[in-house]
Amino acid sequence: MKSILFRSGLIAAAFFLLPAHRIANADGHVAHAPTFKTPKGFSLPSQPVRIMIDKSGYELQVYDAQGWYATYPVVFGNNSLADKCMEGDRCTPEGDFRIINKRVHNKWSRFLGIDYPTAQSIARFKELKRRGKVPANATPGAGVGIHGTWPNDEYMIDRYSNWTNGCIAMKNEDVQELYHYAVVGTPVQIRR
Prior knowledge:
By secondary structure, the protein is mainly β.
């Protein structure tokens, strides 16, 4: 195994790099597995924390006051990875959001809700509706968040199988770790 550096407080220490692999999902899209993650048992990130989600890389990256902290594999809704247009399109929204609530979830382990739709999301939705790109009776949708998987279904993350209704899904162990230190108000940037 290879090793790289990670940050634990103000000290740098080496940890193992997980082997990268390529996986094709159902529509033939080839994704690269994220190749690193902070090992368990090391210090928590120093606040403030921010989250960056890269849809094309299938990664959720966490940054704290010191810089990069961790990277987790994630999956989304629609395989197109397009920006959300309306409720029911199964697309994951793009833009700048914040975590607005957190709860233990009986189906998805943990749920960190984001403030979609924002004013920017609503403006985009209205413009799409004005141009006839979404039906006149469509709504922008809501209830988007970061959550885990059904019990014993974490293989969906390993296979990069997009299956949510527009949320960001993580392995249960990973979402429990994120839930522990991502507070309400944490910025979340989603991009493709």
